[in-house]
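Exercise 7. Given the encoded structure of a 143-residue chain, write a plausible sequence.
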């Protein structure tokens, strides 16, 4: 007697509503490209079929995503739920292509005494600024 092997078949790549039953009411899946070497990095598709078409046609993805199973795995891993009536937002867990240490930001933080400190600089400069404020606070409290 043989036992049946159960595995989930890969749904048609033209079926845009294949996993919609897993979503809360009023939300849709959004499919972002998270491959930094892709020219469409950061672009998000609202239709599953368009995203899968992008994976098929883009040379940056062709080396790794050669099978429907691989495309399905990427689709599930990268997608997120969103409200179709809200403006586009940053993809969750999205990493900018540029190095964060090169980006200059206006920043604010609270020091150990609860005072708001503002400045302008890179993430590293902000961390140095925080450390300096901590040292100043420690010196003041030890006097």
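Solution.
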């Amino acid at each position: 007697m043989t036992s049946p092997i159960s595995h989930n078949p890969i749904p048609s790549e033209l079926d845009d509503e294949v996993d919609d039953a897993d979503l809360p009411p009023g939300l849709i899946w959004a499919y972002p490209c998270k491959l930094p070497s892709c020219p469409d990095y950061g672009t998000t598709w609202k239709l599953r079929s368009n995203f899968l078409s992008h994976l098929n046609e883009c040379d940056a993805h062709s080396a790794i995503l050669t099978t429907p199973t691989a495309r399905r795995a990427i689709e599930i891993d990268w997608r997120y739920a969103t409200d179709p009536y809200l403006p586009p937002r940053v993809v969750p867990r999205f990493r900018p292509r540029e190095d964060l240490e090169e980006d200059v930001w206006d920043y604010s933080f609270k020091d150990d005494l609860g005072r708001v400190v503002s400045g302008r600089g890179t993430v590293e400069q902000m961390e140095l600024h925080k450390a300096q404020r901590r040292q100043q606070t420690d010196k003041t409290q030890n006097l």
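Remark. Residues 1-7 have pLDDT under 50 and may be disordered. Students should compare their own answers with the one above.
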